[in-house]
Design brief:
Layout (H helix, E strand, L loop, with lengths): L19 H10 L6 H17 L6 H12 L6 H7 L4 H8 L10
Length: about 100
């Protein structure tokens, strides 16, 4: 499968080109097999982007947004790091086809 154009960190240049197959391919590049738990966060992020026209700008705000919508059990750093290792906001946004969070290293 040929992916749309991406930047040097693997983020899509145009979020409108994203689809579920692209998410599966990008996740696999990071060694992640997407489960229902991953998809729940991916769809939450895409909705956040649709409403705010930006990705959550930091891991802290990413965790807070998940907590507000899905509750404390899923809105915590440990849960999100298990799903999206490394920097969860950055990894999840890349898989969700969204722009790089502005304050993530």
């Amino acid at each position: 499968m040929s992916l749309p154009e991406r930047n040097n960190e693997g983020f899509l240049e145009d979020a409108r080109q994203w689809d579920e197959n692209i998410a599966i391919t990008i996740a696999a590049e990071s060694g992640i097999t997407l489960t229902d738990d991953h998809w729940e966060i991916i769809w939450l992020l895409r909705e956040f982007y649709k409403n705010h026209e930006m990705s959550p700008p930091s891991n802290r705000l990413f965790v807070k947004a998940v907590k507000e919508i899905l509750g404390e059990q899923k809105g915590n750093s440990i849960y999100l790091m298990q799903l999206f290792p490394g920097t969860p906001a950055k990894t999840a946004c890349r898989i969700a086809g969204l722009p790089r969070p502005t304050n993530c290293l």
